[in-house]
Amino acid sequence: MPTNDLKLLGSWYSPFVLRVHIALNIKSLDYENIEETLNPKSDLLLHSNPVHKTIPVLLHAHQPICESGIIVQYIDEIWTHAPSILPQNAYDRANTRFWVSYIDDKLVTSMKNILFSEDEAKKTHFVEVEEVLEMMECVLKKESDGKDYFGGDNIGFIDIAFGSLLSWLSVIEELNGRKVLVEAKVPALVKWAETFADDPAVKGFLPQTENLIQYAKAIQQRYAAALK
User: Among the CATH numbers 3.40.50.300, 3.40.50.12780, 3.40.30.10, 3.20.20.70, which is that of 6-78?
Assistant: First the structure.
């Protein structure tokens, strides 16, 4: 039983749940992972997040904290021992939150659109993804100061937000036969992605692309059926 009474409600395929796993691992916290099937949603999830009824939810001493970005920041604020996930400087923290918001607004949205759009529309969304990657290539070079991560020597909030999407990025590449994370265009990001995946806080937690592809195909089929 976790000594600090932490429980994480989530599902293996969710990049947003993965963000919380990584944050907890960075802080070396012991926690209970509760896998949600969402079909149907458990009473515990519905009780813990009655507004959105979504994962992830972190239960800390039976108190629920919802939404991945809020949870990651909560973890960093409560467990203040190193390494820190967000910068100490107020301006740097604000800047970090801006880029995390950018990733969610631009990259997550475009990736979802690729999964559920018709072939012609996908072309536009792939261009959007490539534009985001090029932007994040520039951000990495600036924010890392020549070190391994957006956060410098250690994984930070931007790394967590972006890195949690790497497996799903591989999924849209495989399903559509189009590579976007390529060394010729974004060499720093390619190197960063390899380093990120091999970090002790991440290694073993990134879902396998093959498993995600099967899940993606299933949700695509359900989506198509709902439109009929």
Answer: 3.40.30.10
